[in-house]
Description:
Elements: E1 4-9, H1 15-28, E2 33-38, E3 48-50, E4 56-58, E5 60-62, H2 68-78, E6 83-86, H3 94-107, E7 111-116, H4 126-134, E8 137-140, E9 153-156, E10 178-181, H5 183-189
Parallel strand pairs: 1-7, 1-8, 2-5, 2-6, 6-7
Antiparallel strand pairs: 3-4, 9-10
Helix pairs in contact: 2-3, 3-4
Amino acid sequence: MAKLYFHYSTMNAGKSTALLQAAHNYRERDMVPYLLKAAFDTRAGADQIGSRIGISAPAECFGPDEDLFAKMAAHLDQGPVDCAFLDEAQFLTEAQVWQLARAVDDLRVPVMCYGLRVDFLGKLFPGSATLLAIADEMREVRTICHCGKKATMVVRKDADGNVATAGDQVQIGGNETYVSLCRKHWREAVGDAQPGTRP
């Protein structure tokens, strides 16, 4: 039975690596994965999903106004798809998440979405919020804070290393821009630590 999956985490947890490994597993079994990514994320190349550990694979790009149900249906007209894999799912619109749900329900294609849960201000991305609401299964991809606790938050830093507490929700960047932290250290980094709290 096809399902809509949401694999979520903070930055640098290995989401793209996990996506690429899962897609590779499909290919090894002579099955056909269909890889998708947001068009404006060009860090690994215009039509590539890339991982920090140096692996990558070709992917089709989509824009914010594109109908992903129609895109998947058109792709299926060209040949079989055993599973669709979508990187940086936080960049989906609410409508696009519902389009993916329709693809699962009506086209019977499993869809695996990988993305961030919250932004640098601790707020849900619209795509992630909708996935959390309607995905059939959710799986956390874990990484750790510098203190050793599970990282669930991320801070954005400018070129001088200062932590941003305002700005656009979307800014493409990697290790030079974002740092994953536990909630306590995120609160400290953004200036939300209360006097008298225990270390």
